[in-house]
């Protein structure tokens, strides 16, 4: 067993050698706090507050209604193009609009319309609840049934009855990452479509939607993309489906000519057809500003640091937390989150937060520690584990 002092030296050496260490300065983070919840609410990049204030003053105030034709109306597609490289998408396939829940509904119903003769929807059995709820409702409205199957079982369970399978790229409880290319190929062999939820992978691990042949995807922007509380989600529609992407929330913003105020809807030719109504401009432009932190960031480095932070967490836990149960895989099949089982998770997390270590918990017994490679330090990882150890000793 190594001494804590050795781990302190190790953490310091890892922080000094970290090629992304300079990025932390771009975030507004209280130095007394060790923040491990970037997988639920990303920290604010420092420049966002000033940018938003200027937008309110100059665009909303100064230009008033004219701003709609000076960039606001097109912002959902423009900001989508900024997210596209982060998910391995060529231009023209990503739009930012509405919430993940709403975009899931659009994508699921559109998928059943692309696969009319098929009567079931497969849903990742371990999914984040909203995905399952929305799938149940999409199925109810389209006369399909939902079957819940764990992701690894999908290749064996998918059949000629399956219209679409909805899978979470990274499991929100355990941090386990699924093989997108392999599962998508298996679904395609049975003629089913693949719909991926990227909420816990975008901004963490490299995502290659085009290369994996993914049909549809949705993702959050307020987690690892740091877009701000409730910032709008994004929807990806593969180019091959775009002209047939027939989504059920056909509001005027997705119409081919919204300001013509015509009587009947006709979908826009572009990915703008994924929109429904008026975009929430302030949140959208806060996200736009927040995305600046990704400029010039090497995605390979980002992934390596996310894994290295996790490895260091495991190492500290092995040394300092005797017998800790960690459901997060230790190989590369994980996102940037480590979970620790704890019978008293709610109370333990409250005590951690009291001591400045901010993670979260998921019932009944999971402590979650998000590792954001742009701002989490190795020193903070050690602090989380030593604080957990102190609490256990008490
Ligand atoms: C965070 C998260 C959501 C959130 O959906 P909202 O509509 O933004 O509330 C959905 N699915 C997954 C997998 C998530 O992790």
What does this structure look like?
The chain has 394 residues and is an alpha/beta fold. It folds into 2 domains: 140 residues, Aspartate Aminotransferase, domain 1 (Alpha-Beta Complex), CATH 3.90.1150; 224 residues, Type I PLP-dependent aspartate aminotransferase-like (Major domain) (Aspartate Aminotransferase, domain 2, 3-Layer(aba) Sandwich). 37% of the residues lie in helices and 13% in strands. The chain has 12 helices and 12 strands. A 7-stranded mixed beta sheet has the order 2-8-7-6-5-3-4, with helices on both faces. A hairpin with a 3-residue loop joins strand 11 and strand 12. Helix 3 packs parallel to helix 9 and helix 10 packs parallel to helix 12. The longest helix has 22 residues. Pathway: Amino-acid degradation; L-kynurenine degradation; L-alanine and anthranilate from L-kynurenine: step 1/1; Cofactor biosynthesis; NAD(+) biosynthesis; quinolinate from L-kynurenine: step 2/3. It is an enzyme of class 3 (hydrolase). This is Kynureninase. Its EC number is 3.7.1.3. One of its GO terms (biological process) is L-kynurenine catabolic process.
């Amino acid at each position: 067993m190594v001494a804590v002092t050795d781990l302190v030296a190790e953490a310091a050496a890892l922080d000094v050698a970290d090629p992304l260490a300079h990025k932390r300065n771009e975030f507004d983070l209280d130095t007394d706090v060790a923040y491990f919840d970037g997988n639920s609410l990303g920290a604010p990049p420092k420049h966002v507050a000033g940018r938003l204030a200027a937008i309110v003053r100059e665009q909303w105030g100064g230009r008033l209604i004219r701003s709609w034709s000076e960039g606001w109306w097109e912002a959902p597609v423009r900001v989508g193009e900024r997210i596209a490289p982060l998910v391995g998408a060529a231009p023209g396939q990503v739009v930012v609009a509405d919430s993940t829940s709403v975009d899931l509904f659009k994508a699921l119903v559109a998928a059943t319309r692309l696969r009319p003769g098929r009567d079931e929807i497969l849903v990742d059995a371990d999914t984040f609840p909203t995905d399952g709820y929305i799938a149940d409702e999409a199925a109810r409205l389209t006369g399909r049934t939902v079957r819940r199957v764990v992701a690894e079982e999908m290749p064996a369970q998918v059949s000629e009855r399956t219209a679409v399978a909805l899978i979470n790229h990274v499991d929100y409880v355990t941090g386990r990452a699924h093989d997108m290319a392999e599962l998508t190929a298996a679904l395609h062999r049975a003629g089913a479509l693949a719909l991926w939820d990227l909420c816990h992978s975008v901004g963490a691990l490299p995502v290659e939607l085009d290369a994996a042949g993914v049909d549809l995807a949705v993702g959050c922007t307020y987690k690892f993309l740091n877009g701000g509380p409730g910032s709008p989600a994004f929807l990806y529609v593969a180019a091959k489906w775009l002209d047939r992407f027939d989504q059920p929330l056909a509001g005027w913003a997705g119409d081919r000519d919204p300001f013509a105020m015509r009587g009947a809807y006709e979908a826009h030719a572009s990915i703008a057809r994924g929109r429904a109504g008026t975009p929430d401009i302030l949140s959208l432009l806060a996200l736009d500003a927040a995305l600046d932190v990704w400029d010039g960031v090497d995605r390979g480095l980002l992934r390596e640091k996310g894994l290295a932070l996790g490895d260091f967490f495991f190492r500290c836990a092995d040394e300092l937390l005797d017998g800790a149960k960690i459901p997060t895989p230790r190989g590369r099949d994980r996102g940037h989150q480590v979970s620790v089982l704890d019978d008293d998770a709610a109370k333990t997390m409250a005590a951690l937060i009291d001591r400045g270590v901010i993670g979260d918990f998921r019932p009944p017994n999971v402590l979650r520690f998000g590792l954001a490679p742009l701002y989490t330090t190795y020193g903070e990882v050690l602090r989380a584990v030593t604080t957990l150890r102190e609490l256990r000793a008490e």
